Amino acid sequence: KGSKGQDVHFWQEKMRFSQASQTLFSAAVRGDATLASQAIRGLGDPNCCSGQGYRPLQVAISCGNTELVDVLLKAGADINGHTRDTPPPLVLAAGNADDKDGRLFDALLGQGADLNVGEELTGETALTRA
């Protein structure tokens, strides 16, 4: 199905049964790029998601952590990945007040993020949020 409309339950189950994915998500919440790298080497899935549908990349963007964003993208995190209830990474970056110089936004665009991918519930895109 691509990024839009992916089965969130599939990714939640992957995290539930994978200690490495749980560690990876925890590293994203704490902003710890070193721990995230270790979890990825331990087969942590960069596309796992929390019970609320958030993925490590979305958390790293919300925290404004460009180093962690780079680690996750290099590990194969879906640059446009989101669920019905969560915003796409580029929309999060566009609305991140801590990203004053636009580094997160530019990094995502440079890696191929789609400006036209919007939130499923509101239709808001990175262009409308910026």
TrEMBL record:
Designated name of the protein: Uncharacterized protein
ANK repeats: 52-84
Listed Pfam families: Ank_2 (PF12796)
InterPro entries named among the record's database cross-references: Ank_Repeat/CDKN_Inhibitor, Ankyrin_rpt, Ankyrin_rpt-contain_sf
PANTHER family reported in the protein's UniProt record: ANK_REP_REGION DOMAIN-CONTAINING PROTEIN
PROSITE patterns found in the cross-reference section: ANK_REP_REGION, ANK_REPEAT
Domain of life: Eukaryota
Alphabetic keyword roster: ANK repeat, Repeat
